[in-house]
Amino acid sequence: MSDQRDQWTERDMTEEGVTAAGHARDSDSREALMERWLLEMVREQRRSRRWKIFFRLLFWGFWIVVVAAVAFMVTSDRESLAGNRVGVVRIEGVIDSRSPASAERVIRGLDNAWQGSDTAVVLQIDSPGGSPVQSQRIYDEIRRLRSSGGKPIIAVIEDIGASGAYYIASAADEIYAAPASLVGSIGVVYSGFGLEGAIEKLGVERRVFTAGDNKDMLDPFQPVSEEQRRFWQHVLDQTHDQFINAVKEGRGDRLSDDPSLFSGLVWTGEEAVDKGLTDGLKSVDDIARDMTGSADTTDYTQSGDPLEQISRHFGRVAAQYLGIDLQAGESPVRLR
């Protein structure tokens, strides 16, 4: 009986081993099938992803080409249209290195208008004047462009074209204004305060250390000697002479012989025609219609970076709050 049980046990164990081996083979086969299936799925997904990427690139590439073609046609039409229009550059507000009417911005606008317009360049002026240096730079650029020929540069004065603004206008081929415009003010000014008596009454001691006898000449808390006064008047007179010579060079024999012409007085646009300061009464629209038959113009004014304008505004507000003079490093002489 014992031998028989041993045989049965051995046989059962053998059958169980065969069964286990079979199960193992089946498990390996299923794992292999599962692995192959997963690999095939991954390959299919990759193929599908590649086709999706391809069609997306094709789709967006198509629209990029369409948009670029339309933009090119619009730009070409605009440039063609701009070439047939009068190019306008606006000079508004005080002429200053930090203002929208700085020489850098105006000259950049002038050059763009000169290249972009085939008809004429118009300076649309509405300014009381400002820095003589900035005005001289714009004046010289206008004269340079005029010397190359090809089209006229015309100045049109809106509400006011005085002092440094008229300095610029005098470089143009022609100047026009409205009947009620203010034109002229060919003069130079420096203004300040003498506060030395005020600080004495307040018991304030002013402490200034200089190397150079006249370094503090324009300090409002220091008295001005007669020698310093004469010297400063010489600077103003010399600047005035430069202004007068520039106007005479620009206007030529169109100027009248009125002795008050260079006295700093200002006249209406109507009076300015009689004095030879302007050539007539016209607006920008009038000039555009005369030249092209349409009042449409192309504006080449350089407006500057909006962020720069915002930061400049906040800088001015902060400076006013702190009592800081932002113009401390600029020339105190003004054409106005």
Would you spell out the secondary-structure blueprint of this structure?
Layout: H1 2-83, E1 86-92, H2 103-116, E2 121-127, H3 132-148, E3 153-162, H4 164-169, E4 174-177, E5 182-184, H5 196-202, H6 226-251, E6 266-268, H7 269-274, E7 280-281, H8 284-292, E8 297-299, H9 306-322
GO biological process, one term: proteolysis
Biased composition (Basic and acidic residues): 1-14
Keywords: Hydrolase, Membrane, Protease, Serine protease, Transmembrane, Transmembrane helix
How would you portray this structure in words?
The protein is α/β, with parallel strands linked by helices. It has 2 domains: 1-83; 86-187 and 225-319, Alpha-Beta Complex (2-enoyl-CoA Hydratase, Chain A, domain 1). Helices cover 55% and strands 12% of the residues. The protein contains 9 helices and 8 strands. The protein has helices spanning 2-83, 103-116, 132-148, 164-169, 196-202, 226-251, 269-274, 284-292, 306-322, and strands spanning 86-92, 121-127, 153-162, 174-177, 182-184, 266-268, 280-281, 297-299. Strands 1, 2, 3, 4, 5, 6, 7 and 8 form an 8-stranded mixed sheet that branches. Helix 2 runs parallel beside helix 3 (132-148). It is elongated. The model is unreliable at 74-80 and 322-330 (pLDDT under 50).
